[in-house]
Amino acid sequence: MPIPTATMDNPNPVIFSSKKDIRREVRSIWIDSSEEFIDAAEEGDNLPEVIDEDEIYDLLRSITDPEHPSTTLEQLGVVTAEQIKISGNHISVRFTPTVPHCGMATLIGLSLRVRLLRSLPARFRVDITVKEGSHQSESALNKQLNDKERVAAALENTTLLDVVNGCLATANLRGRDPIDAA
Amino acid sequence: MKALVQSIRLIVFGIIDSLMLRHREALKGLGSQFVSERPRNLIVSFAIMRVLLIEFNVLSQIDNLFDITFCYFPITFKPPPGDVYGVTTDDLRDGLQSCLNATPLFGPLALPLLLEKLSASTGNLKRDTLQTLESCLPVYGRAVALNYAPELWESFKIEIFQPADPDTEGSALRATQSLIRTLYSLQDIPTSGEIQADGLIVDIVQECKKILREPEKSQAQHAIKLLSACICTTAPIRQYVLSQGAICVISGSTHMIGLSYRGHILAGLTGFIMAVNQAYKSGVVDDVEQPLDTFKDQIIGAFSSGINVASCRRAALEGLHQIVQIRRLVPIAELGLLVHIINEHLNPKEEDHDDLRPEALKVVLAISQITTKPVEEISLPHLFLFLPDITPSRNALREHATYRRALDSLATICVQPPLFETFVIRLCSKLDMLCSPMRQPLDDEADAAYAHAILLALKNVLVIKIRDAHTDIPKYLDQLALPLYWIFIRAAVSSAPPLASSDIRVVSLAAKIITLIARSLPLERALFAAYQSGTTTPLLAGRRLPGMQSHSPPFLWSLVEATNERQSLAMFHTISSIFNKRLEDAQPFLQTRLPEFWEESIASATVPIEARRRALLGYIWALLVRNDPRVNVCVNRLFSIFSDPQLGWHAAKAVGEFGRGGGDVLTKRNFSVIRMLHTQRFMTSTLPQIIAGCKISPDLTEHTTYLIALTSLINSVPKAMFLSELPTIMPFLLRGLDVPDEEMRANIINTLNAVAKDESSSQVNVISEHASTIVTALLRNADYEITKSSRLRATALQCLGMFPSIVKYSVLHPQRNHVISRLSKALDDPKRSVRKEAVDTRSHWFAYQG
């Protein structure tokens, strides 16, 4: 292929088409979609809906890959709903780089970290790790991503921050197609 | 030219332009004497240049003409803020393009330069270059394009296989299409035998085939897009690409030993079929051509066996959805088979089917648009089985979910007239059974919820049918509306009506269905329904329907006897509609009774507050008739009780009701009599009064009352009606954001949202002026400890999220960090919908930079 891809770690990654639609349990025998009654039933009740794994996944799925700006981490299979766990105020997010020598893994991890820093209440402690055996420098990577100081230092670097912001630009789509959303 | 002032130059250009228009022949003799830089002048000069290039013999001057045209490429002009001339970048770009594609003589000169620009530019400029190439190539012609085809393709390829963004990718694909059309414009469709091709398209297809050997990789998706783009060009190319590409993909699906990539292969195939569909839609396929005929059986085979494999079910269903839509391709008998296969994946009991249910239903719906027979014979009986005769108890949520799924599925596919007819008959008989006064329900509430679900399904299909302008709706006046009347009136007059026919949620849904049908009736039939009322809401009045002959008894009934607010409101709506249509009959009541009524029941402080409130509501609805002089008298009466501690706020909110002019009840669609511009007239007379009231009222309560009147009024009219007053109103609105009443705050924030959304409006500046105050108020409204309504919190956050795009960074930068830190509280809101808005808003504020 005479396409200039020599500089990329994984010029042709596998795409996963599985689209996970987030579904929540039926809570009442009444269908609450009729506009008028939603107010009465839901507006004021403030029954807490806790932050669950699906909500976290929704925050992360549409972040894009630094190497493939038009492909999301969901499509690349880098983040999956199964790799997110919550217990109390502790969240663990595991991700799978597309290739074991992926030089972008740090950047992807940093994007996940920044997205969660910005979108979750401060009470949560978040651990971000790569899936066991999915990267050649796994432990160094994990250390780097969970070291507060190093994350803070990385975000002081404006070039790096720009790249991260670029990856996060589409995060609000939450799995929707950019064309449908527009 | 430079010697003249630019405005004079514009005139000069105008003169040349009109000379060009009227005296073209004379100018042709002038030769080469002809050629500013101001954008508005440029637009004119581009137009002149185009005529020059097309009409004149320019061969001898072509180099000069090219230089003076191409020097403007690419257009980098950005209109300054508040530009009075209104010249946009696009105007200039289009103007320049119309010159560059005016003559084939530019071809050899322009292509090398455009190629150079293409490799050197990014973003907008790159897209501009690609678009220019797209429009120029067909004009420059095959010979020139052939010379540069390899280089052009190399440049396009990078944008297609390594796209920076979807827009650029699309531009590159369109440019490639244009190149292919130009290169192969002269080829005829081969009548028989092997399809021969040479040149660029062979290279493209070969390259794509190589990539498609790994269908699961990201490059394969780009290859499919590229081949799809080629399919949308010309018939011979389409045949060639399909025979090569489709065979490659299908053979992949049969030769592949493992099943893991089958989903991707089917997705690829779907891509091709989508492209063919697209080609049909855009009209490039003529009636004779059947591009997919040869591969039809293989493709359908691949899809229908794919349905049985979980990993490629989605792709297979999407593929089927596309292929059944292709005109005259799949025979009717085979459609029946497909319905059979899909049926197995539509079991309402299976929660696992939920993910793909919408896809499966889409295929059935598409088939029903071609033939309803297999759907009626296969899908419908299957789904009706899951509508139980005995309602599950209220704790059996799973069983409730099952019939809901069946109803949902039925509502999705029963849109075509014959299917809808069956659907209505079956559901009506179910409803009749549930609502029968003889029924001894096991669980009253579960019955009601079931009835509600059935009505909702009926309503959902009706809404879709109305959207698609189906002509069979009027006949459901007899087949659906009247049976519904019968069911609910029978219940209303019985001594102990079952909950399924008296629950407010069920009854109002039934009323809505009747309204929808009544609205679609032709006028003469509508007269019958219309007389009853605008929205037929008398159903809501439930227990008793008083005679309609004299107008005051129902009026009094709704005040005194109605057991709840909805009942009396329904009656008021009815009365209002009747008055609207038969004003002359209502005159005595309006002229004599109503003023007395005001004094006796509303103005008098001795009447209990609840009764006064209801009376006020009735009074308003009775007067909401039309643009009547009495409305102003009435509003003045309302003003007079603003200071009333009990009724003041209600009176203030009622002002908004007048602004709304009867909302969904008195509308054209309900055949009401609507006077033109009556809302405008009402606004011009009332708004100044309210603003004056806000300004002068000394007492705090009364001031707040005026604020409420103001907000409810402007929230009830289109924003264009008050936009010019916004600078005056804004300070009052801001004050209103601190009032305890949440409904009012929601109204204000809705208004702000409406103003902020329209970025082009000059009134956005008013928001800018008060930005910092508004931001603080919105943060307070978004706080779950202060604001009870989750919807208000979500709207406040939404509004806050718009600030970064409408207010200059310099205005709000001191507050940026404060907003971000305050928003962290909203991230922990108890409601998921609010948290979602908080996350989005916060990320907009993070991205807010100078």
From TrEMBL, chain A:
Transmembrane annotation, as ranges: none
Domain MIP18 family-like residues, every copy: 53-130
Gene Ontology BP annotations: chromosome segregation; protein maturation
GO CC list: intracellular protein-containing complex; iron-sulfur cluster assembly complex
Keywords: Chromosome partition
Superkingdom field: Eukaryota
Native organism: Hydnum rufescens UP504
PANTHER family: CYTOSOLIC IRON-SULFUR ASSEMBLY COMPONENT 2B, CYTOSOLIC IRON-SULFUR ASSEMBLY COMPONENT 2B-RELATED
Pfam families xref list: FeS_assembly_P
Annotated InterPro entries: FSCA_dom_sf, MIP18, MIP18-like
Family: Belongs to the MIP18 family.
Listed name of the protein: MIP18 family-like domain-containing protein
UniProtKB/TrEMBL annotation, chain B:
Assigned keywords, A-Z: DNA damage, DNA repair, Nucleus, Repeat
SUPFAM superfamilies per UniProt: ARM repeat
Domain (MMS19 C-terminal) ranges: 407-525, 558-804
GO cellular component, one term: cytosolic [4Fe-4S] assembly targeting complex
Pfam entry (one): MMS19_N
Domain MMS19 N-terminal as annotated: residue spans: 1-162
Localization in the cell: Nucleus
Cell cycle is among the record's keywords: no
InterPro entries xref list: ARM-like, ARM-type_fold, MMS19, MMS19_C, MMS19_N
Family annotation (Gene3D superfamilies): Leucine-rich Repeat Variant
Ranges annotated as spanning the membrane: none
GO BP annotations, alphabetical order: DNA repair; iron-sulfur cluster assembly; protein maturation
PANTHER family, A to Z: DNA REPAIR/TRANSCRIPTION PROTEIN MET18/MMS19, MMS19 NUCLEOTIDE EXCISION REPAIR PROTEIN HOMOLOG
Family: Belongs to the MET18/MMS19 family.
Functional description taken from the UniProt entry: Key component of the cytosolic iron-sulfur protein assembly (CIA) complex, a multiprotein complex that mediates the incorporation of iron-sulfur cluster into apoproteins specifically involved in DNA metabolism and genomic integrity. In the CIA complex, MMS19 acts as an adapter between early-acting CIA components and a subset of cellular target iron-sulfur proteins.
UniProt protein name: MMS19 nucleotide excision repair protein
Species the sequence originates in: Hydnum rufescens UP504
